Amino acid sequence: MPLNLNWASMAIDYARGEIYRGKTSPWWYTSKNFFELFQAFRGSVRDLITQFDGCTGSKAGKIAGEYTKTPAAALSFTETEALLAQLRGAVTGNPPAPLRSGRSKGNMRLKSPLFWKPTPRLPICPISRCCSTNLR
After folding, report:
1. For the whole model, what pTM was predicted?
2. N or C end of the chain: smaller count of CB under 10 Å?
């Protein structure tokens, strides 16, 4: 049975693109992802806010507001959602363009600036012999 190398070939194509060297953007997060980021961060709210593009120094303190020295993981979903809205308001310009593959044809299509969705059904396991027959 032939080995399906579509995923490996797609990874190689994506690796040939530009590497983003900037800071993260609040436009790249959903409310749920942003909350999960806060839950995983081991520092203060202000420390996490400084990781975002255009939010350093006094601007980070202003956005963090009353949560400046609060551990990021201590915030509720509602509080992180409000901070995400403030961050998006503080970032100047339009949301960044989504990253795209150099391939003109591929098995990925853009659903929105935040999500990639596979178009054909992909194998459950890219390595095992079941790949060519068992699809999700």
Report:
1. 0.59
2. C
